[in-house]
């Protein structure tokens, strides 16, 4: 991906290098993260691979934060993430204008190491990249992308990272358009199997939106970029993950879609560039 020397977003907050002690003092009830339906891994699959639920106890003590200097490689990766975020801002602003969807409200992105406090609660790096609708921020521990390559078999590369980023921004778009809120309401009234299907539709639509973003950024693509994105999508399909962890698959437990579905919807978005063709719910729920 051609990214050096281009605009960087001002909406990126880099918390990497921060070392934290115990949580800050405060009373109240225990807080549980509520991001399972929206982060990159989730549901039954996420419970096995990324137990992201953490709790904040009543007897918390003062927190000390130490900041270390980021390495040159880390700084470069921060610049890359800021550039990708800027690309999503430009693309979605244009898409919203072209389709009379109102004004695109830019999300924030937080880069962190090990653990982070969010509007949805506290999360560890085990959660993988996720979007929190409560504060409209995308949270990313970039170590995830080493895992994506070494543990899940993706090719790696900068566009694999861009695809995952665009997927999470897709969840922000769903929040702005009211899709996420409607799905949450439907899931509360549905049984587990139907709730899982709704989650799959939500995730596949985020993959479609990632493809639409790639369509609008074709001038920055290099040979092999789309293959990197497809490799990442293939690696994180529910069926691929369950085969690695269980040796078999349980379709009713899928929450993000199969490898084939994730690649198919990404490519549909990339080829059409038409945000109106991303009704994953009609196809999966009828």
UniProtKB/TrEMBL annotation:
Region (Disordered): 1-22
Signal peptide positions (record): none
Stretches that traverse the bilayer: 21-41
Positions in coiled-coil regions: none
Keywords per UniProt: Membrane, Transmembrane, Transmembrane helix
Subcellular location: Membrane
Assigned GO CC terms: membrane
Membrane topology: Single-pass membrane protein
Major place of residence: membrane
Domain of life of the organism encoding this protein: Bacteria
Pfam family for this entry, one: Zn_peptidase
Protein name: Neutral zinc metallopeptidase
